[in-house]
Amino acid sequence: MRVTEGVCILVVFLVGASAKPSIRVPQPDTDNVTMETSGTVGGCGILQGPPGRDGRDGLPGPPGTGSLSFADSRDLKKDIEGDLSDIIEAVVRNFTEEKMRSIAQPCTGLGSTSDQAAKSCGEIYQCNSEATSGLYWLTTRDEESVRIHQVYCDMEAWHCGVKGGWMRVAYINMSQPEAECPSPFRLVTSPKRLCGRASMATGGCSSKTFSTHGISYNKVCGQARGYQYATHDEFEGPRDINTYYVDGISITHGSPRKHLWTYAVGHSDDYDLNGGNNCPCAKFPGPSPPSFVGNHYYCES
Questions:
Q1: Residue ranges of the alpha helices (H) in the chain?
Q2: What is the per-residue pLDDT across 199-255, written as a single tens digit (0 to 9) for each?
Q3: N or C end of the chain, less CB within 10 A?
Q4: What's the CA gap between 281 and 288, in Å, rounded?
């Protein structure tokens, strides 16, 4: 028989000789339990058996969570949130200070060796505006390879209104005694040491490509100086970027060529050559430049 603690045992009497009393024990939400006993039954009353043995100790329960009043738990929550806030604030502050220190410190090593190659002269200058002009290592990469080049970065001079971060692509200064004309240009010694096209024959041009080594750029700035020799034809040539469309210097980039700037030389500012050989801005103007030149040119006589 299993009796749930707290359940009263009710004895039901049956009338008749040699009858066997029946004890019914109702249990909540279970079937009734029937106990049968034998012997003489006394008067009506409640049977009380001997005390049962103590139950065995159960297994240890899980750790308790303690008990706090609502006010205590609210105060504890505030304390925890306050501590976390202090920690987060300290981490952010320390990170910011460390970041500011790293920004403030000059990047003295960037571009100084092939192992510390920069992406551009501009990156070096942005990192360290105190960098001096000279040779630096730059790197380019694509899906197949990584290439490293040593180039000259001008960090101190102003060019086209911008100071520093310029990569030198071409430099020909024939006023220096040791300077040489790059092939296929021809050295001219009179009236000064100059570089001219390979042939003095009528028409034609000479071209030289200077590599940017795949370094990205967003501005081109330069200086050109020319000296008049014989007569000049300004924009009298064919209107084609791939041929001698100007008497002067043409600077292009890319393949196919895209126009950057043109230096044109006219014959006279005030002499009428029947509409030819003079700059477009002369008193007796010559032909306007080709459409691909637009306003990106300078012409003088």
A1: 70-104, 121-127
A2: 876 667 899 999 999 998 989 998 888 777 777 888 887 889 998 899 889 999 998
A3: N
A4: 9
